[in-house]
Design a protein that fits this description.
The structure holds 3 protein chains of 3 kinds. By secondary structure, chain A is mainly alpha-helical. Chain A is built from 5 helices and no strands. In chain B, strand 3 and strand 4 form a beta hairpin. Classes of the chains: A mainly alpha, B alpha+beta, C alpha/beta.
């Protein structure tokens, strides 16, 4: 229980302990700054686990943002940066789960559900339409509201 | 002494809830009029005691009664009175009491405004609400009692989390619960219909206003939560697909489907089983949300402290309520397709497609929210599912719905007229393309902004075209019945919302800068001059308050005062400054001094320019207004059942000359 | 038959939730399982606390298994864990390397004087970069590194008697079985 309370204290009540999520960095240009913002918004803070790397006040978030920044400046690609972090902190840090067999259910489940539902709807509509053409297509209310 | 009375009130409420849950349903089953008649009195009785318990808890907070453990944990001597009231529902036990309180508000309303419904039906509906109350009151009394004493009494209490010391916390939970819990009424109506076995078409008409009002409240609650997250909780995020946000969004999505399905069943008699199932789903998702937040099964910034015992109890409750209702559905739902037939191109089909999209979206959100848990169960490793997943798939699923939306009012029941549809599509389509091209110039080629403008104009122009059509074709006084007016306003809300989301998401600018007093930074066409920091204080905090002057083209446009507050217990909180406008928000947050020992030196500051962000909530408010307006439809408030039956005959005195039966 | 589908789907969900509640009693939900288990520890080279001229690197620690304990003077849980390190963990007989994480050397030294020093050697990672290589995100954390420099076990959070019995001793036993 106590470890949980420590998490709670650190992450729900931002402490002025080390650093804040506001971290001015010397970007070379606007495009680089936007890239950094997008990337750190896709990464998850290992400590304050309900915040992105961009928003977290945790000391580790501050360090990892610095790391991401340095890697961007060193010319690494987004994928390389993500791989670097995953190697050290596991898949956990990616808010966008990779598309691989273990996540097929996640990424393709909704599509499968949609397709199944579409088939059901199509069958229902066809059945009703057959009934409709059989009987007079009475739009029996003149005010169709 | 008084807190014990509160506990006693809850016990009495539980007993009455038990009576309310059992007696009327047995009475309806056995045809015993006396038992049936106990429904309203027992509901009123339960409400009286639950209200009393709530009043006692509020009193305990207002009178600084730290002998009550819950009060001591969540408030202290320095907390202002309005946040002491807020603290009543600031943690688990109190929020459960709020749940039951709101359940009773709905039950009372139902008991009062159901004189025109058959007594047997009302008995079953109130009975179901009573049983739900039993579950929650028992949960409170056995696992989450807010009236427990803490002895010896502490001299001062803990604190309400500073993040919650905000008007948002005063407003958001009660309104959200009005929606969440309000779906219990639609649920109860469905159960009553299933129990009754008759499945008269009329029950859907009775259920519609209640469902619309609940959905409207839920919309307001979600809007309030989103606005609050943006303004208070940090960094300009208005939606994060956090598990608890999802827990309120899933019932909302199913609620949208339900409202439309109810229209089909009421007017055409079709899809009664589907409508019943949707109302079971909507409330089930509400209950599920309650489970998710309190069982500790998922990490969430909102989650209350987890406790396996509570989790198991709620799970058992879910099994009884949801499992029981789904079993009843399996046994008693109508199996034969009823209702008037319809062609492939018709409003029925349109609504079915929209239902499919919204239900799939709700399922997608559920899947994404639960996937980390599935990953643990199937040993797939720790997977995180966040905005890149939810946002992406949600847009994919909603795009066809947006395309379909303006056709809605033009599609006739039974068989649509192609001519009108193509005419509208042409007008709205041209308008959308023209505006999209214009947007391309202003938005510097941002695809999302262009798509947002196109989609919004498509929906807006199509809806406007229908408004004009009705205005021209119908005589005064019959142009816009409440239900149609509500629909048009809500659909317009979708257009407004689209502008807000797509433009603010694609055109927002954010910068973290280091500013010494006198230095200027530029964001989004505005210049921000940092003029140093002053000390201020509030009732239970002291703060460093930054002064930031906003200039545009050299002229001062405003001054902003972001704060860094330190509360009496030592917690530090950033209070951002927002300059709100209809067409843009300017948002400034104070970070920390570059040199911790020199607050008069340079500070780290975060600056935002967010175009059209208010349109997000404005769109939501339009949708809410539409829901409330639609509920006012005269047809739903038929005075007596006899008059309703008479109204079906063309020569009925209830109809004015020229009016057609609805 | 299809009418029973929603009920079945719900029961599946109930199973999942029941599992979730049980799983929570066995695991700490916030714990991130380290991807470095059974992988070589990252190469590092850090100055010794208080003696910046002296450097300890991974190579110098090879040949014998050791504990690497991440601690800091600002870390509240470390105070609770420290007695365990001084007694039970020390009695296990393995060297304990202290990893002073993002700390001020003077504060750290004072903290050790107050609470005791169970470490055979202490390295200082002032800016946390080496910590990132180890996947450290909080303190205290403890690694068990074997003679070949492979990380065999990681504990996130303080070492408690229960953790010592249920996790650390079995891990050591597994190590002992390998060495001839």
């Amino acid at each position: 229980m106590r470890p949980f309370l420590v998490w709670l204290a650190l992450c729900l009540l931002p402490l002025l302990a080390f650093a804040q999520a506001i971290q001015p960095l010397p970007f070379r240009d606007r495009a680089e700054e936007v890239r950094f913002q997008k990337l750190s918004a896709e990464l998850r803070c290992p400590m304050c686990q309900n915040e992105t790397l961009a928003d977290s006040n945790a000391p580790i978030a501050h360090d990892l943002r610095r790391q991401v920044f340095e890697m961007i400046q060193a010319g690494k690609s987004d994928d390389e940066i993500k791989t670097y972090l995953v190697d050290r902190y596991s898949q956990f840090v990616l808010y966008k789960p990779p598309v691989e067999p273990s996540t097929w259910l996640l990424w393709f489940g909704p599509a499968v559900l949609l397709a199944a539902g579409a088939i059901v709807v199509a069958i229902q509509v066809r059945r009703r339409a057959r009934q409709a053409s059989a009987s007079t297509p009475a739009n029996d209310t003149e005010d169709d509201w | 002494m008084i807190p014990e009375l509160g506990q006693f009130a809850l016990v009495l409420a539980l007993i009455l809830a038990l009576a309310q849950g059992v007696l009327p349903i047995v009475g309806a089953w056995r045809g015993n009029a006396a038992l049936v008649a106990t429904a309203r009195p027992t509901a009123a009785g339960q409400a009286v005691f639950v209200f009393a318990a709530m009043a006692i808890l509020i009193y305990a907070f207002l009178s600084y009664d730290f002998s009550v453990a819950y009060v001591a944990d969540n408030s202290n001597l320095a907390l202002p009175w309005y946040y002491r009231v807020t603290a009543v529902w600031g943690a688990h036990e109190g929020s459960m009491l709020l749940w039951v309180f709101i359940l009773n508000v709905w039950s009372l309303a139902l008991a009062a405004f159901s004189r025109h419904l058959p007594d047997v039906f009302v008995a079953r509906v109130l009975g179901v609400l009573g049983l739900i109350g039993v579950g929650f009151l028992a949960f409170i009394l056995f696992t989450s009692n807010p009236f427990l004493r803490e002895l010896p009494m502490p001299a001062d209490g803990g604190d309400l989390n500073p993040v919650l010391q905000d008007p948002g916390m005063t407003f958001h939970p009660p309104v959200l619960y009005m929606g969440y819990v309000g779906f219990s009424v639609a649920f109860a109506f469905s159960i009553a219909a299933l129990l009754g076995g008759g499945m008269e078409q009329a029950w859907v008409r009775w259920a519609r206003p209640w469902t619309n009002v609940a959905w409207a409240f839920l919309t307001l609650g979600i809007v309030a939560g989103s606005w609050w997250a943006y303004a208070e909780l940090g960094w300009g995020g208005w939606w994060f697909w956090d598990p608890v946000e999802n827990a309120s969004f899933m019932p909302w999505l199913v609620g949208v489907a339900l409202i439309h399905a109810q229209a089909v069943t009421e007017k055409r008699g079709s899809l009664p089983a589907w409508t019943v199932l949707l109302s079971l789903f909507a409330f089930s998702l509400s209950l599920l949300g309650t489970f998710l937040v309190r069982s500790g099964v998922l990490t969430s910034v909102h989650a209350f402290a987890s406790d396996p015992r509570r989790g198991l109890y709620i799970l058992g409750f879910l099994i009884i309520v949801i499992g029981g209702s789904l079993l009843l559905y399996a046994i008693r739902a109508p199996k034969v397709a009823t209702g008037k037939p319809f062609a492939a191109m018709s409003r029925e089909t349109g609504i079915m497609i929209a239902n499919l999209l919204f239900t799939t979206a709700a399922a997608m959100v559920l899947l994404g929210t639960l996937f980390p848990l599935i990953g643990d169960a199937l040993n797939l490793g720790r997977v995180s599912v966040g905005p890149p997943y939810f946002g992406f798939l949600f847009v994919l699923l909603m795009a066809p719905a947006v395309l379909l939306l303006p056709f809605g009012p033009y599609l006739r029941w039974g068989r649509a007229e192609g001519r009108q549809l193509t005419a509208m599509a042409l007008r709205a389509g041209v308008a959308a393309i023209v505006c999209a091209i214009a947007a391309a110039f202003f938005a510097q080629g941002h695809l999302r902004a262009i798509a947002g403008v196109a989609g919004a104009v498509w929906v807006g122009a199509g809806t406007l075209a229908y408004v004009v059509k009705r205005w021209r074709e119908m005589p005064r006084g019959r142009r816009f019945p409440a239900e149609m007016g509500g629909m048009l306003i809500a659909h317009a809300g979708v257009a407004i919302f689209l502008i807000g989301v797509m433009l603010s998401e694609s055109l927002s600018v954010e910068r973290d800068v280091r500013l010494a007093p006198g230095e200027v930074a530029s964001v989004g066409g505005y210049d921000f001059r940092f003029d140093g920091v002053e000390e201020t204080e509030g009732p239970n905090w002291r703060a460093d308050e930054g002064i930031v002057t906003i200039l545009r083209n050299g002229k001062t446009v405003g001054t902003m005062h972001p704060q860094k507050r330190t509360y009496s217990r030592g917690q530090v909180q950033t209070e951002s400054a927002i300059d709100a406008g209809l067409f843009r928000d300017i948002y400034v947050a104070l970070g920390e001094p570059m040199d911790a020992n020199d607050v008069s030196g340079a500070w780290a500051v975060r600056l935002y320019h967010k175009p059209f962000v208010r349109w997000i909530w404005l769109g939501g408010l339009f949708m809410m207004a539409g829901g409330f307006l639609a509920a006012c439809e005269r047809r739903f408030r038929a005075k007596k059942i006899a008059a309703e039956a008479a109204a079906a005959k063309p020569a009925s005195p209830a109809l004015k000359a020229g009016e057609s039966p609805a | 038959m299809s009418r029973l589908l929603p009920l079945f789907a719900f029961l599946l969900l109930v199973g999942l939730f029941g599992f979730g509640i049980w799983w929570n009693t066995q695991h700490d939900q916030h714990e991130i399982v380290s991807p470095l288990i059974d992988k070589p520890a990252p190469a590092f080279s850090l100055p010794v606390l208080g003696e910046p001229a002296r450097v300890v690197d991974k190579a110098s620690l090879l040949g014998k298994p050791y504990f690497l304990n991440v601690f800091a003077s600002w870390c509240i849980e470390c105070v609770h864990e420290h007695p365990m390190l001084m007694t039970d963990v020390k009695q296990l007989g393995l060297p304990i390397v202290g990893f002073n994480y993002k700390d001020d050397p003077q504060a750290a030294t004072a903290w050790l004087e107050e609470h005791g020093n169970p470490f055979d050697v202490i390295v200082a990672d002032r800016d946390g970069r080496t910590g990132i290589d180890f996947g450290v995100y909080a303190a205290p954390e403890t690694f068990l590194v074997d003679a070949k420099g492979v990380i065999r076990y990681k504990r996130i959070g303080p070492i408690t008697p229960e953790v010592l019995e249920k996790e650390i001793r079995p891990a050591l036993a597994a190590l002992a079985k390998e060495t001839p």
